[in-house]
Amino acid sequence: MIEEQSGEVVAVNPTKGADVVPSPSLERARAFARQSKAENTLRGYRGDWKDFCRWCGARELSPLPASPEAVAAYIADCAGHLKVGSIQRRLNAIAEAHKAVGVDSPTSAGMVRNTIKGIRRTMGTAAVQKAAALTDDIRAMVAMTDAGLIGVRDRAMILLGFAGAFRRSELVGLDIEDCMFGKDGLTVTLRRSKTDQDGQGRKIGIPYGSNPDTCPVRTVQAWIVESGIAVGPLFRSITRHGKLRPGRLSGIDVARVVKKLAVRAGLDAVKYAGHSLRAGHATTAAIAGASERSIMAQTGHRSVQMVRRYIRDGSLFRENSAGKLGL
């Protein structure tokens, strides 16, 4: 496995000990390399790499460098309890660990490629999507929010997430400085996102809603006024006594709020999560006849195929040929 000790990269081989690679002159390069991927991705890789090292250690195999046979056997074992996407991420983690110390990755070997291909064919790759929260669902959730400051925050977060089609990480990553109110609505500057790791940023328009109770612009304004936030994170945690804390919420907190309100609204909480807001925007817009271009402009999708998945889901019963059969 790979460890960092006193500014050095240590490649630990359970059967051969450790090779210490001096790295003072590489420290800046390593720092930049760590920034090449999102922190969530790196966190996942670290957990995946540790799992592979434990698996190898139990069988007295070397994880670094690892043999193609060992990697193929490892992912075959993983197929018994992990989804295909999780197995692929573990392969990515193994590849990154080998790349970090400048050795060839076993994941590119034919044996490994054929094994993951067989796993895909056997298990299938269809993703289990969370339910899209449509407009009526959002209204029901908003109606079930708490009284006091927590309710004001939750309403603002749900409505802004839905209207802006934000990812969880994007929503909780917003600072109050990213919000500009104008006569046409709210302009949100998204400084970084999953598809914009270089931080080029983009602006997203949130128009005023026709109903004051569910208007995302008015609810965000109300949250800012009542919370008294002047700088820093837009969405923050609140104690049960109604005291605002300085730290920003996490993506998991968004999912918890959605699930909490889904239960209160009589929806199946298992089917809903933070992504339901983003999926709900795209699906609802597709049902209403919005163009692919306008949906992609709001969601920031770079792949037309992904947006078309939402459009297909939203069009299953609109212009459906089965409805023309006279049954």
Could you name the key traits of this structure?
49% helix, 327 residues, three-stranded antiparallel β-sheet, globular, 13 helices, single chain, mainly alpha
Describe it for me?
The protein has helices at 27-34, 39-58, 68-78, 84-100, 110-123, 135-143, 148-164, 168-172, 216-227, 251-264, 275-287, 292-299, 304-314, and strands at residues 2-5, 8-13, 17-21, 179-182, 185-190, 202-207, 236-238, 244-248. With 327 residues, the chain is mainly alpha-helical. The longest helix is centred in the first third of the chain and has 20 residues, at 39-58. Residues 1-22 have low confidence and may be disordered.
Number of strands: 8
Oligomer description: single chain
- Over all CA atoms, what is the radius of gyration? 24 Å
- Give the N-to-C terminal Cα separation: 63 Å
Helix/strand-derived category reads mainly alpha
Assign an overall shape: globular
Task: Please give the count of helices.
Answer: 13
Largest sheet: 3 strands, antiparallel
Overall mean confidence score, pLDDT: 82
Strand order of the largest sheet: 1-2-3
What fraction strand?
5-15%
N-to-C SSE series? EEEHHHHHHHHEEEHEEHHHH
